[in-house]
Amino acid sequence: xxxxxxxxxxxxxxxxxxxxxxxxxxxxxxxxxxxxxxxxxxxxxxxxxxxxxxxxxxxxxxxxxxxxxxxxxxxxxxxxxxxxxxxxxxxxxxxxxxxxxxxxxxxxxxxxxxxxxxxxxxxxxxxxxxxxxxxxxxxxxxxxxxxxxxxxxxxxxxxxxxxxxxxxxxxxxxxxxxxxxxxxxxxxxxxxxxxxxxxxxxxxxxxxxxxxxxxxxxxxxxxxxxxxxxxxxxxxx
Length: 237
Description:
Layout: E1 2-7, H1 19-27, E2 31-36, E3 51-54, H2 59-69, H3 73-82, E4 86-89, H4 92-95, E5 99-101, E6 107-109, E7 117-120, E8 126-134, E9 137-145, E10 147-150, E11 159-163, E12 173-174, E13 176-178, E14 181-184, H5 190-193, H6 195-204, H7 215-231
Parallel strand pairs: 1-2, 1-3, 3-4, 4-14, 5-7
Antiparallel strand pairs: 5-6, 7-10, 8-9, 8-11, 11-12, 13-14
C-alpha cells in the first residue's frame, strides 16, 4: 500500500493542485491518503510515508506553515538526505528556502532546506505558460505567482526550460531538487497535465507499469497541448 501525506490541505489548496493526489489515488490500487491539518502532528515524524505532498497557498498561509514546520526542520532535513519523496508545488517551495523577502525588505525565515530565497512583488502577479523537460519527458504547465526564487539551482533543478522562465525571469532552470525532494512553481495540476511525469513520480515510489486513470485520454490531451506549446510563437514571460 502507498501512503501519501498531504500537508495542510485546508490552506494549501490553490489552483486545483489537490487533484494531483486524487489522480494518483484513482490510478493506483491501495493508496492511503493522510490529510494532515495544521493542528495535527505530521505523520512523517512517526511512520514511513511514500510521498509528502504540499500544494500552493496564500502568502499569509506561508507564514503559518513555516511556523508549524519549524520544530521539525531537522527531521525534514534528515528525510531529504535519506531520499524521501517530496512533491512541493507552487509557492509551497518557498517555505523550504532560506527566507522570503517582502517589498519593504523585511524577511520571513524559511526552513532552510534549500539554498534558494524568494522575493515578493504583491502588486504584480506573474502568469505564464511553461514548457520544459526532465530527462526525456517534456513538461507542460502554467505559472501564477507573486514571488520568484533566487540562488544557484544550476546543479539541482527539476526541469530544463524550453519556453518560459525558470525560478525567476533570468533563469532557465525551473524548480529545486535535492535527492527526491522535488519543488517546482509549475502548476497544471502538474500530474494531470503530464501523464508521463506522473509515471516518473510513481516509479520513484516503486510503482511501475501502472495504467493511469483515463490514461488514453490523458495522453491525447497532453500530446495536443504539447504540440500547441511547441508551435506557439508567443513569448512565454
